[in-house]
Amino acid sequence: MDRAEVTDSLRTGGRSGRRTPPAYLRSHADSKAASLASVHNDLPGFSMPNEEQANLAAETFRMLADATRVKLLWALLQGESSVTCLAELVGAGPTAVSQHLAKLRLARLVKTRREGTFVFYSAADVHVRRLLDEALYHADHADQDLPDHPDPAGEPPPHVALHA
Asked: How many domains does the chain contain in total?
């Protein structure tokens, strides 16, 4: 089973098979999509992500759709930590934190290091920081009704202070 099949199985709870719309709807949707796609084809540098990229990105966002996981990742961006320390930081039980970390590890958002019988977790890479920075920055803007920020360099802005 490849990664996409595992992701699909996790998302659907093991149920497979999507229903195909009737042919008359497919042909209408296909012709409408083709005419809309031609508009985008004229844009310089425009390209759609392939199916695997879109699925992996959606899976990453699904993993970030839990407040406890966001807090865990934020803590791990400050440095590596154990399950016990993380549980204390996020106010959850060690068993729940361990389960969250297992899911984040499978999604390649965290990595582990063993030292004897202890396991230490850390954020997987700089992409995790950028995802969280932008998500938290967006949350602050939405919460405080702030205007959008100019981003000419394409770099994510530094995160503003979190609200307690």
From this structure: 1
